[in-house]
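Morning, I've got a small favour to ask if you have a moment. I owe you a coffee for this, so here goes:

…
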Amino acid sequence: MSEDRKHASVNLDPGIRIERMNTEKTRKEVGSETVYHAYFELSGYPAPEWRNIFVQEWMRLNLSQGASIDGAFLVVHCQLGEVAATLLPALQRTVATTNEAYMRYAQKETTALEHREDAWKKERKDVEAVAASLHFD
């Protein structure tokens, strides 16, 4: 694989998983006695498309807690008592589903890139053939 192609293609191995709850960043929401901004560290910085898929998957679960991604963190607005019993398992399922959907997306993008490269190579070959057939005085 060429260097250009490595940089142009999408990452086929998202490897995103929840590593731990970050106790330093997790804080009560301003003005609330029960709602926290719970920060969960991810194993890496997800690609923009991975983040989009995650948000869609989380909304599909129809959970009342809002969730977002901040760099390499999942941030969820919740009560602390919800974390172990319901929230973490739901987050882990959503991350797994997101990884699967992202893998399908990445494979589709890689295939499309390969088709574009093949078309470009054919076009270059056709141009070179025409150029080789020309005779100049």
Remarks:
- The two ends are 41 Å apart (CA to CA).
- Helices lie at 3-8, 48-60, 80-133.
